[in-house]
Amino acid sequence: MSRLRRTYGPLLALAAAVLALGVAGCGDDDDDSSSDDTAAPVEQTQQGGDNGGGANAQAQEVEMLDFEFSPPSVSVAAGGEVTWVNNGQAPHDATADDDAFATALLEPGDSESVTFDEPGTYSYICTIHPQMTATVEVTG
Description:
Radius of gyration: 16 Å
Distance between the termini: 56 Å
CATH superfamily of the domain at 43-139: Cupredoxins -  blue copper proteins
Structural class: alpha+beta
Largest sheet: 5 strands, mixed
CATH topology of the domain at 43-139: Immunoglobulin-like
Shape: globular
Strand order of the largest sheet: 1-7-5-2-3
Strand content: 25-35%
Number of strands: 9
CATH architecture of the domain at 43-139: Sandwich
CATH class of the domain at 43-139: Mainly Beta
Helix content: 10-25%
Oligomer: single chain
Order of helices and strands: HEEEEEEEEE
């Protein structure tokens, strides 16, 4: 059984990824949660450290995994910071649908933070893998 797993395991993983891509593209895109706010976040920094995330409404962390953001939605108070950490095996970025923010292309192990000053809901994607979608909600 171990030999079969070594032989066909990568092929099965690839098939599962392709299937997930197909399913992700079949969703309903009638999301009216976009904000009319046009103010962009004030600060973006690349870093390698921990930002404290968790229950602190001033800082949240989002993992970039292979073909998903985890968690898919975070909330911070105005002035709060979101840090994206690429824990996957492929490069990823996080780019707002309305271009309010965009991280650099993050290689595995890289991270980047964005500070959000204006309340609103910011939907974003990975431009390399557009099926990867998520949101940041900024509260007043």
